[in-house]
Amino acid sequence: MAAADVQEIQCKSLLNRVDIPHFPFRWTINPYRGCRHACTYCYARPTHEFWGMDGGKEFEQRVFAKVNAPQVLRHELSRPKWQREPVAMGTASDPYEPAEAEYGLTRRILQLLAEFQNPVSITTKGVLVRRDVDVLQQLHGAAEAQVVFSVGTLDEKVWKQTEPGTPHPQARLEAMQFLVESGVPAGVMMAPLLPGLSDGWESINTLVAAAAQHKARFLSANLLFLKSRSKEWFMPFLREAYPHLAPAYAKLYRKTYPEQDYTQRVLRVVNEARRRCQLPMVTPPRQLQGPQGRLQLAF
């Protein structure tokens, strides 16, 4: 994979309000734009198009680092009207994408959230999160912190073809176990499950069992969804790598989300495996604080 061109930019705001009905969070933080993890199915690819770039190679190879993010966030968290609502990191770009090793923006943001006792939920495919265990311990003690590791499959071929820039799935599970053993709540989001590739009984049960063996505190799952612009990038990959699946995908993804019957069937398998391994589901970020201000889980 070609080296990424990381460009430093200034942001005017960092806390992003989400006003989409039924979304599980209201505030997000993304210290980077673009992502070298290069997941073929990534729903965030069209964000680059807003800035006049393509959502294909440029999304993977032109990463933007919001270098003033910590200063901007301090100002936003200091506002009298800010009520320390839970924030989600990792919704449009992985906060532990490779640029974080150089810039450390995510770590500095977590330090600020700990200082202001502000809950956070992090979703990542990265393992650099291990570096920040000290800050996460502090943040979890002061407010609430959880780390959700996105792992959709343990199949070597599927992983290499669909997530070529990501750490090995096994490495992600090991990072999760390290955090859990260090007192930081962490678990697995099986996402996305790919029709015909990682949605089968054996694949799902193997991954759920591995999550439990690595001490996951919770587990949930999402099916692949394809927005129109993301579909334009994903479908050519599918036709080249798995041509026999292309007709089924064309039928299943006439719209953004797959048919409800299919989704319910796959999630039923996930939930059976999850309950068998005694793994609760994670609650959405906006529900992180319960009556006592602690993480709420539901079976």
Structural class of the helices, strands and pairings? Answer: alpha/beta
The figure for the number of domains is: 1
List segments where confidence is low: pLDDT < 50 over at least 5 consecutive residues: 285-299
Instruction: Output the number of helix runs.
Output: 12
Task: Give me the CATH architecture, please.
Answer: Alpha-Beta Horseshoe
> For the terminal residues, how far apart are their CA atoms?
41 Å
Helix and strand element order: EEEEHHEHEHHEHEHHEHEHHHEE
Write the CATH fold name.
Answer: pyruvate-formate lyase- activating enzyme
Overall number of strands: 12
* CATH classification, class level: Alpha Beta
Could you characterize the architecture of this molecule?
Strands 2-3-6-7-8-9-10 form a 7-stranded mixed β-sheet. It has a 3-stranded mixed β-sheet with strand order 1-5-4. A two-stranded antiparallel sheet has the order 11-12. The chain is α/β, with parallel strands linked by helices. The protein has one domain (about 5-285): pyruvate-formate lyase- activating enzyme (Alpha-Beta Horseshoe), CATH 3.80.30. Helix 5 (about 105-115) packs parallel to helix 6. The chain has helices at about 45-50, 55-60, 70-75, 100-105, 105-115, 135-140, 155-160, 170-180, 200-215, 230-240, 245-250, 260-275, and strands at about 5-10, 15, 25-30, 30-35, 60-65, 85-90, 120-125, 145-150, 185-195, 220-225, 280, 295-299.
